[in-house]
Amino acid sequence: MEKKLRVGVLGATGMVGQRFISLLENHPWYEVVTVAASPRSAGKTYEEAVGGRWKMTTPMPEAVKKLVVMNVNEVEKVAASVDFVFSAVDMTKEEIKAIEEAYAKTETPVVSNNSAHRWTPDVPMVVPEINPEHFKVIEFQKKRLGTKRGFVAVKPNCSIQSYAPVLTAWKEFEPYEVVATTYQAISGAGKTFKDWPEMEGNIIPYIGGEEEKSEQEPLRIWGEIKDGVIVKASEPKITCQCIRVPVLNGHTAAVFVKFRKKPTKEELIDRLVKFSGLPQELKLPSAPEQFIQYLEEDNRPQVSLDVDYENGMGISVGRIREDSIYDYKFVGLSHNTVRGAAGGAVLCAELLTAQGYIQAK
After folding, report:
1. Is the pLDDT of residue 200 over 90?
2. Which residue range or ranges hold the Semialdehyde dehydrogenase NAD-binding domain (predicted)?
3. Please, which residues bridge with residue 253 across strands?
4. How far apart are CA 331 and CA 252, in angstroms?
5. DSSP label of 56
6. Which are the catalytic amino acids?
């Protein structure tokens, strides 16, 4: 790319906003030129606005420290400074829907980490290796919004990343019933142990709204476009429990699967390691070279050893074995704020750019 695209980050001071900022440092295609947040942060430099709340393990990039934070509600003003935006705003669902569409209507594409638009019928919710064809629904969305280049695209919930790609790789064997329990890191709640000391040595067996997302969002990803909207798939049926565990980064899933065409263990592993998609084909900057790795050791995947596989953009799977009630069971692991949040959104933006949906204004 001759000239980098100008990027804005909405909700730049929060944890996912910070992850966007850190992932976009030295990005070959994009340059963060605008950071926007709530009115209370507006007018301060990014460094002042974040203060002691920088939650990444890497230092704050020098290039953003002196950027003056803009008021996220001043939509026209923010939009005028950028080619597109990433959204990680912390508002109510209705407020998020409204503000993301307001940005889209300024002819500014919005790639969102938020859940507000995940079930808007003409908004694509995409894992780039799984359902890139859903971006085609953008043309219908533009007609609704009355835009030429503005639209909203979203990525799905962090909790499904450790098993939905796995089930996709096994599609030919027709998985039809799935039981999943996810063990979710505290960064998924935007926290560190410093913010949430009561999570040390603790487990909380409830994460609001998470179980429904974990059961339903994979079906939307596996759905198809009909009459200008995305219609979710009817199978596999998924039931899920979501548990918060004392881990900083990394969502682990323990999953049981029934298949209509029962495969061998060797076939399952073969399909996982060979599974790739458009991001790998196009060699997108953030794409993992090997999307899914299979680990043979009985005690893997482990958060401490495997969460950063492929810079946090890959999925680690282990312990595939036959089950006495279901056909097979396995354990999956993904990085919840990289692949599951900001990194997944950056990869979506790269694919949208490669396909011409995102261009310089």
Report:
1. yes
2. 6-138
3. 182, 332
4. 7
5. -
6. 158, 251
Predicted TM-score (pTM) of the model is 0.97
Non-local (6+) Cβ contacts of 342 within 8 A are: 16, 19, 20, 23, 86, 88, 113
Mean pLDDT rounded to a whole number for the chain? 97
Q: Average pLDDT of 314-320?
A: 98
Local confidence band at 73 (pLDDT 50, 70, 90 cut-offs) = very high
Domain borders along the chain are 5-157+342-354, 160-335
Q: What number of other Cβ atoms are within 10 A of residue 330's Cβ?
A: 24
| Nearest in space to 12 (alpha carbons), one of 100, 72, 75 | 72
**Six-digit token pair at 292?**
């899914």
Closest CA to 249 of 343, 173, 180, 320: 343
Instruction: Decide yes or no: CATH 3.30.360.10 for domain 160-335.
Output: yes
Q: Which residue has the tokens 């994460």?
A: 207
- Residue 262, pLDDT > 80, answer yes
Q: How far apart are CA 254 and CA 268, in angstroms?
A: 16
The pLDDT value recorded for residue 17 is 96
What are the backbone angles phi and psi of residue 260, rounded to the nearest 5°?
-75, -35
CATH architecture designation of domain 5-157+342-354: 3-Layer(aba) Sandwich (3.40)
Question: What H or E segment, with its residue span, contains residue 351?
Answer: helix 343-354
Neighbours of 348 (CB within 10 A): 29
